[in-house]
Automatic annotation (TrEMBL):
Modified-residue entries (N6-(pyridoxal phosphate)lysine), positions: 290
Function of the protein: Catalyzes the transfer of the alpha-amino group from S-adenosyl-L-methionine (SAM) to 7-keto-8-aminopelargonic acid (KAPA) to form 7,8-diaminopelargonic acid (DAPA). It is the only aminotransferase known to utilize SAM as an amino donor.
The keyword S-adenosyl-L-methionine is assigned to this record: yes
Cofactor(s) needed by this chain: pyridoxal 5'-phosphate
InterPro entries assigned: Aminotrans_3, Aminotrans_3_PPA_site, BioA, PyrdxlP-dep_Trfase, PyrdxlP-dep_Trfase_major, PyrdxlP-dep_Trfase_small
Organism in which the protein naturally occurs: Kribbella alba
Source organism phylogeny: Bacteria, Bacillati, Actinomycetota, Actinomycetes, Propionibacteriales
Designated name of the protein: Adenosylmethionine-8-amino-7-oxononanoate aminotransferase
Length: 441
């Protein structure tokens, strides 16, 4: 594939360094960037600015959302068809078929009590809306003093203010804002391990601690909010489904709502369509995003039960007090519906299981390498945890030389590949990660 004619990669990257902030980046000391010249299937075409163009498997699925890969004909067609009708209309006083059909489909596939949908701009906003719902719900029930959230250490829920307040206040990324954020109630992080049994001493101690905290703060807490089964940006940390059962029981016992943030875990990533299915429990409020549109456009949704929706609607104000300008954007709704239908039209569970097996076997040798603390796989998520911080630039370059794009963070080198990756591509990903770690140690 030839690079398109136009401005040189070197010039564009120089402009980028002068003008643009990237996620968690400095303008005074900008990190090296690679220019994307094209993408198709699971591969990116990258320009390094020095006249060289390389292809690399996107082992990150573009931060976990591009589950069907790039330039998928079904999703491309959904966007084109909607553009031919209209690209956007306000959702105040107006509605449209893509929003209605997508809402119907999301309700159909969500846990049974979920019956109502609020469309949002992004995952972080969906958490904001979920917290607003919980607060308005408690006010409507006469519990004005219930203004805090109960969560666990190690979580990550987004970068806007309400989500930042329920992220881990110590090991998270938002300690600079301590004092400006709402002070929430934090319990201990669940004991690690998806397969940890419910009679394990560490689990029992954790459950007892959470029960004590919930009882102590019941009159000031509106809801419990967690990422089910897998804490994502907090450390790719899996925990037992039994923990969710404890949280569900505590919410019921104390009149709290249970909010499940499935932005990263929804749509099959952990092996079930929604991660809560591993535990057999249902949330009162559900947040989804990322893979919702197959990575094509920014969109998320906050879903809730009829009890939550009607209680809020009968409360002060008579409405959920939120309304984004681009709420239910028709382009996003159309491609999201196409993405969901595409996922469900195939044996996605078998594909995720296949990827999981490939990640487990391919990353297993990394466990024997010096400096490696842990190797873990859950669904289509593969993680190598090192004994110390990753050298981001060195590790990125080492993996890229082997034809794979990853974005390590903290002490983790991990992959959340697109579901369309072949066995050979999964082997390339795991081999590149393992070899790069071996090279650096």
């Amino acid at each position: 594939m030839e690079m398109a004619a136009g401005v040189s990669g070197e010039t564009l990257l120089q402009r980028d360094a002068e003008l643009l902030w990237h996620p968690y980046s400095s303008l005074s000391e900008p990190s090296p960037m690679r220019l994307v010249r094209g993408a198709e299937g699971v591969r990116l075409r990258l320009d390094d600015g020095a006249g060289e163009t390389v292809e690399a498997i996107d082992a990150m699925a573009s931060w976990w959302c591009m589950i069907h890969g790039y330039r998928h004909p079904v999703l491309d067609a959904a966007l084109r068809d909607q553009v031919d009708q209209f690209s956007h209309v306000m959702f105040g006083g107006l509605t449209h078929e893509p929003a209605i059909r997508l809402a119907e489909r999301l309700v159909e596939i969500s846990p049974e009590p979920i019956q109502h949908v609020f469309f949002c701009d992004s995952g972080s906003v969906s958490v904001e809306v979920a917290i607003k719902l919980a607060l308005q719900y408690q006010v409507a029930r006469g519990h004005e003093g219930r203004t805090r959230m109960l969560t666990v250490r190690g979580g990550y829920h987004g970068d806007t203010f309400a989500p930042m307040s329920v992220c881990d206040p110590v090991s998270g990324m938002h300690s600079l804002f301590t004092g400006a954020l709402k002070e929430q109630v934090f319990g201990p992080q669940p004991p690690s391990g998806f397969d940890r049994p419910a009679d394990d001493p560490e689990f029992l101690a954790w459950a007892a601690a959470l029960a004590s905290i919930a009882a102590e703060h019941r009159d000031e807490v509106a809801a419990i909010i967690v990422e089910p089964i897998l804490q994502g940006a907090g450390g790719m940390y899996p925990y037992s489904p039994a923990c969710l059962k404890v949280l569900r029981d505590l919410a019921d016992e104390h009149g709290l709502l249970l909010i499940l943030d499935e932005i990263a875990t929804g749509f099959g990533r952990t092996g079930t369509l929604f991660a809560s299915e591993h535990a057999g429990i249902d949330p009162d409020i559900l947040c989804v995003g990322k893979a919702l549109t197959g990575g094509y456009l920014s969109m998320a949704a906050t879903l809730c039960t009829t009890d939550v929706a009607h209680t809020v609607s009968r409360g002060p104000g008579g409405a959920l007090m939120h309304g984004p300008t681009f709420m239910a954007n028709p382009l996003a709704c159309s491609v999201a519906l196409a993405s969901v239908e595409l996922l469900l039209s195939q044996d996605w569970s078998a594909e995720v299981s296949r990827i999981s097996a490939g990640l487990a076997s391919g990353l297993a040798p990394a466990a024997e390498l010096p400096g490696v603390k842990d190797v873990r796989v859950l669904g289509a998520v593969g993680v190598v945890q090192l004994g110390g911080p990753v050298d981001l630039q060195r590790m990125t370059e080492a993996v890229l030389r082997r034809g794979v794009w990853v974005r390590p963070f903290r002490d983790l080198v991990y992959t959340m590949p697109p579901y369309i990756c072949t066995d050979e591509e999964i082997a390339t990903i795991t081999g590149a990660i393992t070899e790069a770690i071996a090279e650096g140690n």
